[in-house]
Amino acid sequence: MKLIPKIARGDIYALELLYKQQKTRVYRLILSMTGDSYLAEDITQETFLRVQEQAGTYRNDISETAWIVTIARNLTYDVLRRRSHELVNETSVSSAAFVLPDTEEQSNLMFLDLIKDLLQPEKEIICLRILADLTWKEIGQITNQSADASRKRYMRSLEKLRSRL
Predict the structure, then answer these.
(1) Measuring CA to CA, which residue among 106, 123, 107 is closest to residue 115?
(2) 63-111 pLDDT per residue, tens
(3) Quick check: 19 and 48 in contact, CB under 8 A?
(4) Residue 56, phi then psi, degrees to nearest 5
(5) How confident is the model at residue 57 (pLDDT cuts 50, 70, 90)?
(6) How far is the first Cα of the chain from the last one, in angstroms, to the nearest whole number?
(7) Cα 54 from Cα 56, distance rounded (Å)
(8) CB atoms near residue 100 (< 10 Å)
(9) 3-state SS string over the chain?
(10) In 3D, which of 152, 96, 154 has the Cα closest to residue 125?
(11) What is the pTM of this model?
(12) Cα(153)–Cα(121) distance, rounded to whole angstroms?
């Protein structure tokens, strides 16, 4: 069932349903890119505001999930670019002072720790496949490469991870 055309027509219930269906996927992807649960939550909310604002521009040649993930990915990169200048001189919050709210958050942080040493394109391909659960075709559309190239990059990235374990 296509929800974005309904959202474009102002159907707030379609937006609510889409949010419920996609929020965890979007949040995990953003968390994997930022490593900051609070920032990931903010960007997740902003993603769905953008979905509502830009629903009229949605094209049927890409899945709704891939379209939403693309918005989330672009927003995250924008925020990280803006924040990179601000964070240069700031100190990190001590991990001892950070209380994890639940085991899902712990799993997310363990995943981030596992992929931290990969190159950004490798991290991205793994996150798009595992966290966003996208098809090779959707990943290819997002990363501007073929589905086969996406799959091969993913396999090479997994091999790199395996060799480090």
Answers:
(1) 123
(2) 999 999 999 999 998 988 887 655 544 444 434 344 445 566 667 667 7
(3) yes
(4) -70, -15
(5) very high
(6) 41
(7) 5
(8) 13
(9) CCCHHHHHCCCHHHHHHHHHHHHHHHHHHHHHHHCCHHHHHHHHHHHHHHHHHHHHHCCCCCCHHHHHHHHHHHHHHHHHHHHHHHHCCCCCCCHHHCCCCCHHHHHHHHHHHHHCCCCHHHHHHHHHHHCCCCCHHHHHHHHCCCHHHHHHHHHHHHHHHHHHC
(10) 154
(11) 0.75
(12) 9
Whether the Cβ atoms of residue 4 and residue 53 lie closer than 8 Å to each other: no
Give residue 98's pLDDT: 42
Answer for the pair 34, 76: CB distance below 8 angstroms, yes or no: yes
62/110 Cα distance (integer angstroms) = 31
**Structural contact between residues 148 and 154, judged by C-beta atoms closer than 8 angstroms:** no
Burial label, 43 (beta-carbon count in 10 A; 0-12, 13-18, 19+): buried
- Write the single-letter amino acid at 129: R
Sign of CA dihedral 100, 102, 103, 105: negative
Structure tokens at 109: 């942080």
The answer to whether the CB of 153 falls within 8 A of the CB of 121 is: yes
